[in-house]
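Co-fold these.
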Amino acid sequence: MALIVQKFGGTSVANTDKIKAVAQKVIKYQQEGNQMVVVLSAMSGETNRFVDMANDVQSIPDPREMDVLLSSGEQVTVALFSMAVKDEGFDSISLLGDQVKIITDNMHTKARIKSIHTELINKHLNDGKIVVVAGFQGVTEDKHITTLGRGGSDTTAVALAASLNADKCEIFTDVEGVFTTDPNICSAARKISRISYDEMLELASLGAKVLDIRSVGLAKRYKVPVHVRSTFTDSEGTWVVEEDKDMESMLVSGVAYSKNEARITISKVQDTPGVASKIFLPISDAGIVVDMIIQNTRAGELTDLTFTVPRTDYEKAMKIVQIVSKEIGAENVTGSDDIAKISIVGVGMRNHSGIATTMFHVLAREGINIKMISTSEIKVSCVIEEKYTELAVRSLHEAFALDKDNQPVVE
Amino acid sequence: MALIVQKFGGTSVANTDKIKAVAQKVIKYQQEGNQMVVVLSAMSGETNRFVDMANDVQSIPDPREMDVLLSSGEQVTVALFSMAVKDEGFDSISLLGDQVKIITDNMHTKARIKSIHTELINKHLNDGKIVVVAGFQGVTEDKHITTLGRGGSDTTAVALAASLNADKCEIFTDVEGVFTTDPNICSAARKISRISYDEMLELASLGAKVLDIRSVGLAKRYKVPVHVRSTFTDSEGTWVVEEDKDMESMLVSGVAYSKNEARITISKVQDTPGVASKIFLPISDAGIVVDMIIQNTRAGELTDLTFTVPRTDYEKAMKIVQIVSKEIGAENVTGSDDIAKISIVGVGMRNHSGIATTMFHVLAREGINIKMISTSEIKVSCVIEEKYTELAVRSLHEAFALDKDNQPVVE
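Predicted complex below.
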């Protein structure tokens, strides 16, 4: 008898018909001899409706009250789901975050789980019930309701799977799994059957659409096998699991892209100790997260510093940097928000040289200028002009033969 | 400094604009030097929406899960309300039933309050906060969410006022108070300025529209002064308070009517011990609540037995009675569901004779036949044909001069 945690997102429980269909699906798994814990999101659209109402009544909605408001959405779906299970003649119980005791810190709207009490869930599982847990929500030690932020239901599911020592955690969504790249811009994109936690973390921009990235970190830490799959078919999706030999034989697992960044360059900065902190301290104080940072040494003591920030923070960052650059005597500040970041990801890179070179070659062949490069052990990212995004993705996808199940390994 | 509990119903918090307006109203009371506890219902329409969804997924919705579902409605309004208060620059906190610890029995969908913990509310009041409590909901000792049934938010408000030893409990609604009769059928109906708990209980059919009747019983027991008033004006409404001399000088406080009943007559029943229980036991076993029971003795040992049941239970009751009447050898069973119950209510009746006679005389004068009569210390009820309802109400209202603030006292 396996213990399975299944999470269904907002589109999977968008109305009562869908809730009934999902209940029948879960019952089938239980009938096959499994103990079932179900984690649900709010009906799709509800969270936006709540946010709109909150913005109506308070210019900057109070985070504590926002959590009280938002958490009501999952309360609706877990109650209806439990009813739907009972209507089919099976036993079920809904549990909210504070009933389970999903204890979090007190960072409202983006709380982190500190501990999960499993006694109550185990009791109900042993009674033969399908246990339906409200995703996305927790409670502080002193009983304030918290929420886990965007994608929080995935985190709830993986954290429950880890705490309950579940055999697997299945994330049901409206796509069939994780793809080698975005199928919307590359028709040759192929569903990945198995991917490592580390690759999934690097493929954030692909994965974020189907699987919250924090939950991947959690799954990695507790070695929870995660199965990302479609609510609306029975076919296998993508397994996010520990790295194995098969994965290593692949050069590249996927091509990711992000259009959410902007680039800022400070020219001719004095290359002296303390300059970097003078620039980045006011930026981080403003709550802006810097992604890539590249420093090109020029002749003498002057250097160029280029970095990327979220596109939504571009103007704010530019203002800060313009002030700072005068203080530190830099020559000038330039920037652009029409850039894209293209990344190739694969654990196979660890053992194969020449992957980055191939990437640069492919981009050059297509006439795409590389503006920034950054690498990690299993990833190469290039910043290019935004207009070349689709061309770059398709060219790289083809060059690394990602449309084929077994890529030729270039030694 | 007074402690005031104010309850706002679903129409008063139906959208974000109304929530903001109510928040400003409450802030004004606090600024006048009062400690404020606010009890809110769900937005009007939400409960029906939830019930519809529940009926979609389960033929008879599970009561425990129904309570999880329904209680999410107040969670939304208290969060938004608290935000609205903060947006005006004042401090506020929302508390759910389980956060306050409004402990109830485990009768889901119609739970009764067993105790209320006041520590947390008092702490926040002493911190200068407007404390916003979700109405209608509680929690069992073992942490299951419960709801208090229709009108439960009134009960929450009065129970909180009693527990907190509040100076008054104000029930804000969409009408101006309790009227001498239904203004929709009698244009001369007048707002009552003060009424006793006992009268209010008897005027259930008038009061139910503005004030849940269970909350009146609770107010009476704990001597909580209740002020029923309009959300949308600042004028005084109706005070429901302990009986005083002024009230006793009035003969009649109001005329109530109910079209929700049906009448069943069993003819020529053996008048022997045990017959009544043989008839009424299966009826109560079927969950049907009998209101009036009248037994007319005939010649010899045969009697006629007439009683009323809720109109929605009429057919079910008829079937039961037809079976029982055969068993006990009664002659036949007749009934009708086109009846109405007209009641006059007033504590003044205790000290004045002739009130009932006046009522019978007025009805006779209008050609209205009385089918059943029942009386209590402060009430006379007559069952008549439904079609005469409006005529009876208007005639009695006029006969007892209810349109005038100070009625002439008939000695």
